[in-house]
Write a structure and sequence with these properties.
Strand content: 5-15%
CATH class of the largest domain: Alpha Beta
CATH architecture of the largest domain: 2-Layer Sandwich
Shape: flat
Distance between the termini: 59 Å
Structural class: alpha/beta
Strand order of the largest sheet: 3-2-1-4-7
Order of helices and strands: HHHHHHHHHEEEHEEEHEHHH
Number of strands: 7
Radius of gyration: 24 Å
CATH superfamily of the largest domain: Ribonuclease H-like superfamily/Ribonuclease H
Helix content: 40-55%
CATH topology of the largest domain: Nucleotidyltransferase, domain 5
Number of domains: 3
Number of helices: 14
Length: about 325
């Protein structure tokens, strides 16, 4: 299930076949056959660019354009089902075989079904989502860049620290500016994020910052007591990212980078004289980010969150957590 259109687009942009294979996770034979067929047909991107994958296959690879005699699985729905607890490929294959309404159309054998399913997951980048269950985990961190709120009297800037939260399944994100990175601001950021999401994740994964963990030996991580009480109040659990394990927090670091490039950078020339004004501008930018369509798969952060993840979050408590001093 190669993406013929993307293969040709990268080819006409001047990328080598090796680079195309690495970028799209497609076999070299597939890429070379398609490019060879395009050269022999003397067709350019102006013609190919308005076609979809099926039309390109029909034009350049007519032998492969014939309709399959096998019943076609709904891989989009099956990818969602695979993310549910206890669901396996074998179970999905059995369901696919049992749901064939046209008895004259044979099902794929299990091995071919798995091969086509894996190709679909790679092509749509759905394998990234399969690493996380919907509503199970939420990442939290502070952005490296700072915003600024200007003192109207002194005319000097006050640092604004950007708190970022991200649900890894949908990549749905939240951001908010605070005057400090103290624990009160850290916990308020969590509460605002959960209220924005409309629910609570089963696991909270912070970076190993001082407001979340106590200073301990390198192989031991202790959650500070206030943060533990906060998690218990929201019926969640704190599982910090492991030290020196960048994969544990790759998505939140990506969200931090997005917040710096798509929130702070566009607002760099604007002056805000209150945190309320700054956070209103940040909220507008966050809405744009969440509503922007994905580049490699269907939908957006907002659509995936609304349709698949929001229902899996735990309900919010009736009242906010109050931190004692």
């Amino acid at each position: 299930m190669s993406n013929e259109r993307d293969i040709l687009r990268l080819h006409f942009e001047g990328m080598s076949q090796r680079e195309i294979c690495a970028a799209l996770k497609v076999g070299h034979t597939r890429v070379s056959e398609l490019i060879k067929a395009a050269r022999e047909s003397q067709i350019g991107w102006e013609a190919v660019g308005i076609m979809d994958d099926r039309e390109i296959r029909s034009l350049l690879l007519p032998k492969e354009s014939k309709e399959s005699i096998y019943a076609q699985p709904d891989f989009k729905r099956l990818a969602i089902e695979l993310e549910r607890p206890g669901v396996t490929r074998k179970l999905l294959w059995n369901t696919y075989c049992n749901n064939i309404t046209d008895k004259g159309t044979p099902p794929y054998q299990y091995s071919q079904f798995c091969k086509l399913f894996d190709e679909y997951l790679i092509t749509t980048k759905a394998t990234m989502r399969l690493k996380h269950k919907p509503g199970r985990r939420c990442f939290f961190d502070w952005a490296g860049m700072h915003g600024a709120v200007w003192d109207e009297v002194l005319g000097t800037p006050i640092k604004a620290y950007i708190f970022v939260a991200c649900l890894p399944y949908s990549a749905y994100m939240f951001a908010h500016a605070f005057p400090s990175m103290e624990q009160r601001c850290w916990l308020e950021g969590h509460m605002l994020a959960f209220e924005y999401f409309g629910g609570v994740s089963a696991i909270m994964t912070p970076d190993q910052c001082g407001t979340a963990t106590d200073r301990t030996p390198i192989y031991v991580t202790l959650i500070n007591e206030t943060y533990r009480e906060f998690a218990a109040y929201y019926q969640s659990a704190v599982v910090p990212a492991r030290r020196r394990k960048s994969n544990d927090k790759a998505l939140v670091e990506s969200s931090v980078l997005i917040s710096e490039r798509q929130i702070l950078a566009p607002l760099r020339d604007e002056r805000f004289f209150s945190f309320a004004d700054l956070n209103e501008a940040i909220a507008d930018r966050v809405e744009i980010i969440n509503e922007t369509p994905f580049q490699r798969r269907e939908g957006s952060r907002l659509s995936v969150f609304s349709e698949e993840e929001k229902c899996c979050l735990k309900p919010l408590p009736e009242a906010r957590f109050e931190m004692a001093e």
